[in-house]
Amino acid sequence: MDLKPYPLETLFGRIMSPFERFLKQTTAGGIVLIGTTVFTILFANTPWGGWIHHLFEQTVGITAGREVFLRLTLHHWVNEGLMALFFLLVGLELKREFLVGELSSPKDAALPMVAAAGGMAVPALIYFLLNPAGPAAAGWGIPMATDIAFAVGILVLLAWRVPRNVIIFLTALAIVDDLGAVLVIAIFYTQAIDGASLGSAGVMLLFLTMLNRGGIRHPLPYVLAGILLWIFLLKSGVHATIGGVLLAFTIPAKPAHTPEQFDRSLEELKDAFHAETCDPESSGNPLSSLRMAALAEALEKEAIAVQSPQQRIEHTLAPWVTFGVIPLFAFANAGVDFSTIEGWEALADPVTLGVVLGLVLGKFAGISGASWLAVRTGLAVLPRGVGWIHLCGVSWLAGIGFTMSLFISQLAFPGDPSLAEKAKLGILSASLVAAVIGFAWMYLAGGTREKGSRHPGSTAPDTGCATGGGTAGTS
Predict the structure, then answer these.
(1) Contact at 8 Å (CB) between 458 and 387?
(2) pLDDT tens sequence across 94-144
(3) What is the C-alpha separation between 150 and 29, in angstroms, rounded?
(4) What is the DSSP string of 234-250?
(5) For residue 425, how many other CB atoms are within 10 A of its CB?
(6) What CA–CA distance (Å, rounded) separates 203 from 221?
(7) Which residues lie below 8 Å from residue 456, measured CB to CB, with a gap of 6+?
(8) Which of 218, 243, 441, 445 has the fewest C-beta atoms lying within 10 Å of its C-beta?
(9) Over the stretch 312-326, which tens digit does the pLDDT of each residue have?
(10) Phi and psi of 289, rounded to 5°?
């Protein structure tokens, strides 16, 4: 019997898990981000390169009559306005992971949380050792961040060679890393505080919480209150993008209807719709039958009711952030004019070197070292099917610190363009090196699946990072 191969779409169906949809989008977003970054760097080194800087220094304001309510440069509108949407998406992802994802169970959350902590502490320490004092010391937070779009996007390209749990682990680690970066920005990169504006922001946050507790599920009140929260935080001195994360945690995560209610309503609507199509007096066309149109509208409302506001907002916001906000942020911030950089000397500058060594070596040493200690002491266990050779590959990929690192560099050196350019050079160089090493490592590690690497009660790893197959430490 001749069996023709079925298309993958036929074999696996059109319905993808939310995680698989996220991975697909992350890969596409990473490609767009790479293209935007390369274009921005090339354009910045043409005779027209100054146009980018001139464009984003233009001011745009909101006026009420003759009074200027809010005036910012386009650069600040991107970094503090549009990026608030990025942080809103980060907050929604964090909340989802803590509620039902890889961080919902203490046992599952232990390893990515410990690994992320090590991956933030060691890079910051390396940078600080190279820049212990002076204006450059403010950049210690730059090498702490991992770019989830780039790192996970590269790993997804190798999904056919690595265990799926490796991708899940890197995603969870990067999300915890984002939370750490948010806390660093809020605590250490906040300017002088305006108490009145901060108090107003607190009132708005309380109001948003009351909306949640009161069962309000329509997005509009949260949008309006979220905008006011952003404005008050902007005027308070706390970086306004933090408002995105705070808003995310007030958006309801429970749907209005349970799956059982939805199932019952679906059956009732289906029967009513079927009866309408079989009715000889009905036209059988929703365009001309008000009854059929009403049933279809009711079905649409039921489908919305079984989804939480958090799900709907995250699903709607994700493509705009992935394909709009982040590439625009890269266009506004990633341009490096190499004519202003003193050749190879710039790579040896303590700022550039601190960022490069922090992201490349610091991330690798921090994540792999902290993970080894956590597993060795019994605090955590390796994900099923994941060996130390895979975890070390993840440690290299985590050195890609593009979006959040660039963002922190703007906060660390707001009044010193030369330091910001050196940090930017370090971020781009480190991200390239980490991506190449991580991709090559994971490709060579492909097919090396550690059977039985996760056992209940297991406390010790069985392989080492240095060799990918030897013993880690002494027994």
Answers:
(1) no
(2) 788 788 776 777 877 889 899 999 999 999 999 999 999 989 999 999 999
(3) 8
(4) HHHTS-TTHHHHHHHTT
(5) 20
(6) 15
(7) 381
(8) 218
(9) 888 888 888 888 888
(10) -100, 110
Q: Which two tokens stand for residue 426?
A: 């370090």
Query: Is residue 185 a contact partner of residue 241, using CB atoms and an 8 Å limit?
Result: yes
Distances (CA, A) of 268 to 265, 272, 299, 396, 454: 5, 6, 10, 54, 46
CA distance 331 to 53: 10
* Cα 468–Cα 473–Cα 475 angle in degrees, nearest 5: 120
- Neighbouring-strand partners of residue 62: 70
Q: Is 38 helix (H, G, I), strand (E, B) or coil?
A: helix
Say whether 231 sits in a helix, a strand or coil.
Answer: helix
Q: What is the pLDDT of residues 202-215, one digit of tens each?
A: 999 999 999 999 88
Residue 370 is predicted with a pLDDT of: 95
Confidence at residue 466, expressed as pLDDT on a 0 to 100 scale: 45
Residue type, 154: I
How is residue 309 written in tokens? 């506001």
* Per-residue buried b or exposed e for 65-83, using 16+ beta carbons within 10 Å of the residue's own CB: eeeeeeebebbbbbbbbbb
Lookup result for tokens 């730059």: 142
Reported confidence tier of residue 342, pLDDT bands at 50, 70, 90: low
Length of the chain: 475
H-only helix segments in 101-194:
106-130, 148-157, 164-188
Q: Tell me the two tokens of residue 190.
A: 């906040």
The amino acid that residue 449 corresponds to is R
